[in-house]
Amino acid sequence: MLKAFVNWGKTERIVPMKRRAQGEGSIYHRKDGRWVTTVYLENGKRKYLYLHSQEEAVRALQLANQAKMQGNLTNTHNETVEMFFLDWLRFRLQPRVRERTYQAYHDLIVKHILPTIGPIKLQKLTPMQIQQLYDLKRQQQYSPQTILNIHKLLRRVLENAVYLHHVQYNVCHKVHPPRQPKGI
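Structure tokens predicted for Integrase SAM-like N-terminal domain-containing protein (184 residues):
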């Protein structure tokens, strides 16, 4: 776009307006009244943010670029708990532990965790859903030690998700783990 500068009634010259740098993102206004912020991710894909005002869009672009520089902006919004947990088992855990340990973790995940919270998107997982999982296992008459083992495994896997920037924080930190049985 071009903009004319006026100085005491005289037009001096036409100067092009500054553009954003390549890959910095963009902001535009839609016909339905919303503002769209587009941010380019490291893998070449785009992330779109829809906002109500131009000020919100500018701020969102600044925050998104800052998160991208810190490595916190990822394109994992469609990843489910099941997808992440199975990938974690296969690529992060299996090469590092013995077969029996791997099988114990696999059984806990497949039998207890995935049927309940597997279809939930990883970034949408809430502490309430984790607490409901524990309550369900308590109603199914599982021992407190089994529920505690589920909690420890969930916490470990979600810590790995935070480390890999798939989620912002570990929701297990907001859930009270079941009490550990006496004598252990």
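The longest strand covers residues 10-16.
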